[in-house]
Amino acid sequence: MQKNTDIQFEHLGLIDYKEAWDYQDKLFNATLDIKVQNRAAAPDAQLPTPNYLLFCQHPHVYTLGKSGHEEHLLLNQEGLKAKGATYYKINRGGDITYHGPGQIVGYPILDLENYFTDIHKYLRFLEEAIILTLAEYGVEAGRIEGLTGVWLDHVEQRNPRKICAMGVKCSRWVTMHGFAFNINTDLDYFNNIVPCGISDKAVTSLAKELGREVPLAEVEEKLLKHLGALFGAKITTAAHEEGH
């Protein structure tokens, strides 16, 4: 069967976290269903699997991954309500993180068998797309060994600060969840958690580093370009349908 490297891109705008999660699940499970059917089909009857990339923003929300600790959320129910935030335990890797307006949240639902079967390489590619995008703004970013995501001051680590968090789920080489890239994010919301379980390192945003707000659409365009190049994929835009 011929591999399909094309990616269908969809911008969901500002969308409730649970609604976006349900939509991811729908796409993810539909791809898994195709893979299950293909296993039982003759090679010439196998269907290519689709690849999706969703960008969105969420209203204030905290999410806890499978390996996370609830005590890393420093708010009770009343505190969440006062902050206008919601809280979900979810099925990605990683600990607790925050999503909110001014952030680019990216959800790739890719069949890695269309590209390469290496989850670590996949995470490095996501990180690299962020690093290359930041470089276009004159911001030097990179990785810190043993920690996922993208960091500033990653070499000398005098004041290391995270600008992009990551957490993914992968089943039968199909991915979901993804990354949260802080652009014009209200960083005060990170004070209510131990971000990703790391208590001794700060969180930052592109706006904070540049001292000005940055148009989200401008950053998204650069990020799409780098993701397409890294994965060797043609990214086509799909219109967002209300209610999916």
From TrEMBL:
It is found in: Cytoplasm. It comes from the Bacteria. GO terms for molecular function: lipoyl(octanoyl) transferase activity. Pathway: Protein modification; protein lipoylation via endogenous pathway; protein N(6)-(lipoyl)lysine from octanoyl-[acyl-carrier-protein]: step 1/2. Its EC number is 2.3.1.181. PANTHER family: OCTANOYLTRANSFERASE (PTHR10993:SF12). Catalyzes the transfer of endogenously produced octanoic acid from octanoyl-acyl-carrier-protein onto the lipoyl domains of lipoate-dependent enzymes. Lipoyl-ACP can also act as a substrate although octanoyl-ACP is likely to be the physiological substrate. This is Octanoyltransferase. It comes from Pontibacter mangrovi. The lineage of its organism: Bacteria, Pseudomonadati, Bacteroidota, Cytophagia, Cytophagales. The gene is lipB.
